[in-house]
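Let us practice reading a record.
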Amino acid sequence: MHRRNFGRLLAAGTLFLAATAMMPVPAMAQAGKTIVGGFDVGPGGFQGNFNPLTATAGFTWLNTYFEPLVIYTSDLSKLTGALASEFTVGQDNLTYTFKLVQTNWHDGKPFTSADVKFTLELAKNAESGSIFAARLGDIASVETLDERTAVVKLSKPNSAFLSVLSQVMMLPRHALSPVPLKEVAKSQWWSTQPIGTGPFKFVKYVSDQYVEMAAYEGYRGGKPKADRLINRYFANAAAAVAALRAGEIQFTFAEPDDAKTFKGNGNFRIIEGDSYVVNYIGFNHRAGIWNDPRVRQAVMYAIDRNAIVSSLYGGAAKLANCGYVAPQLLPKGLSDYAYNPQKAKDLLAEAGWDKINGDKPIPWLTYYNTPQVANVMAAIQAMLVQVGINVVPRALDVPTYNGIARSEKWPDFPLVYAGLQNGPNPASLNIGLNAAQIPPAGNNIMRVEMPALTQALNTAMGETDPAKADAKWQQVCKEMNAQLPWGPMWVASRYGVVSGKLRDFFWTPAPAGGPFVSHPEKWDIAP
């Protein structure tokens, strides 16, 4: 597609995003070093959700005061211990033994194996509102051999188990056990008096404005260099970038175009990396209008993905023809669904699209409230209408989106633009595609029920031999490419911008914001 025509298509699309002014943080009288950041301004990040059992993002911030048993290294290459000083897997691939560090909760109570047992049983129980319930469904038992040893036994091998545990933050049994199970998810405890084991402890949350943390002097890694951390909230990425330029904050996620404006400015450092998130057009399989695979194929052929990546991502994205783009997971012979609007029209005609839906408007939801995604969706909207598919983009805040996606009213919203973690462990895709993960059990919000795909996922999930795992995930890729449970688009790069005043600050564009080894206790700021 010529750039001139692409520009006309982009102009033809319409998507409105709300923009509000930055919310000021009141001046604070306490002395000491304070680091302020827009730590939750990023895809999926949103203010007010401090419950790690229900959070789908925001782990960059949650990891400053909560900690998991195991955690990914900063380059996301492997798992290492966090609250577990050691962890081993038995020869049966069913028994996981965790030796725990000696540390205390922020209220001075000791962290023990009883907390591990409490947390995993709570996270496994869907009545708690946990999004990990289905992912931890293979846990058969959690045993506490002594205060420093926890043993988890699975009912069957699960190659993703440790990766899932990296996002399960340990919780204090003594503080949360009195809360009735069905009230845990919405308890005020999370935003008023949460207790963790991390380097910073909770001070206060000012609704819609900021969260304040104070250094935990009893942290096992030593007292943090910064006295306070402030997480500012912004209506959009542009507001956060403006605050960064003004010196009001020292870090924020940034859109590619915004990040580029800092290039060559010695007062800032740009961080770029793979997002490990595949963006996709999600077909709600209970909506009825996407049942014919020819319709799903038509959507793919109607979109000039190369033009979008070139013009709107500046080339900083890789096309995805299944759920991931890592070379070792891609089999030969995949269809690339190259741009072919005539083929899209022919497929729709063969499927009888005029009778299925015709030109009736199709609501198209997203939780991405950024100018870049607005432009992407507007471009796709214009391309789809050329072949006879009339989609109407609508951007929602994340809580509203999640509420709709996991509710029984979902058929009223047949299409989404979303993203799902596709690494560093490919098993992350299982939660969004396996038929056993349909809400409320899991996060298969598109209600995908494809037996061959589910079987391929189950086979890959059960393969614990790394030498054989890639071939199993290649089969998952083949099924996704052929059946199109989603319309996979691309895996884009992600950006952060850091003030030159920060010292020993580390951030990586990890899926959901982490968690990963970032050592918040070492973060420092120059006067």
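A brief commentary: The two ends are 51 Å apart (CA to CA).
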